[in-house]
Amino acid sequence: MTEQPTVQVADTSDLALRRAAELIREVPDFPEPGVLFRDISPMLADRAGLHAVVSALGRDCEFDVVAGVEARGFLVGAAVAQAYGTGVIGLRKPGKLPVVADRVSYTLEYGQATLELPADTLRAGQRVLIVDDVLATGGTLGAACRLVRQAGAEVAAAAVVLELTALEGRDKIMGEEVRALLQA
Hints:
The protein is α/β, with parallel strands linked by helices. It is 27% helix and 34% strand.
């Protein structure tokens, strides 16, 4: 007997997203014992799965540019920008950018982290769709929202492929529209 996947589609009427969700691999005890890791790599490698995700992330949202969060947010964010005819900005970990406009440090489950905004990429007043792969505890996505606002731009929405609802990360991103295509 095959166990039913624990990933649910937010918009159950979207058949393409339902099929894409079936491609997510569940890996027990990774990266440590007791953790059930949801690997979206097979979904992103699948032509129809990637198309469903990219189409849905930007749907019904007005934005001027996409900000992809390192690292898988780069992949998905760039695809969304291409599909919707905008540019893309990579929000990076420290030490990766030659010129930094701003940085925000934040707390993760297992320590501290920092995100940086590249200089001369975001203009005041732009509407930014922030894209990341997974919303867990909310630290990374919250930091991305702060970086965008500190640059004088507007967060059009924060969009993720998968939200781990038990970690309640959405609660830490106050005042922003958070969109999750899939939930576990």
